[in-house]
Design brief:
It is an enzyme of class 3 (hydrolase). Keywords: ATP-binding, Hydrolase, Nucleotide-binding, Transport. Its EC number is 3.6.3.-. With 67 residues, the protein is mostly helical. It has two helices and two strands, in the order αββα. It is globular, with a radius of gyration of 12 Å.
C-alpha cells in the first residue's frame, strides 16, 4: 500500500493546514513534497497555478514551513 496515493487537496488562501495520522502514514513525505523539498514520484503539486517542482523558488514566498 502506498502512503500518499491518490491524494487530492486544495488549501485556500488564508487557511492553515494541519496533517494528523499514525507513524508511517506519509505525513512528512507529503509536506516535504508540498514545499518542494522532495520530488513527488507521480502527479503534481501546484501553488497558485504553478508546479512547485518546476518553480521551487515560489514556495518560500507563500508557504511557511518548519520541520
Amino acid at each position: 500500500m502506498l502512503a500518499n496515493d491518490a491524494i487530492s487537496l486544495e488549501i485556500r488562501q488564508g487557511e492553515i493546514l494541519g496533517i494528523f495520522g499514525p507513524n508511517g502514514a506519509g505525513k512528512t513525505t507529503l509536506v516535504r513534497q508540498m514545499v518542494a523539498l522532495l520530488r513527488p514520484s507521480s502527479g503534481c503539486i501546484d501553488l497558485l497555478g504553478q508546479d512547485v517542482v518546476r518553480h521551487p523558488s515560489l514556495v518560500p514566498r507563500y508557504v511557511s514551513f518548519y520541520g
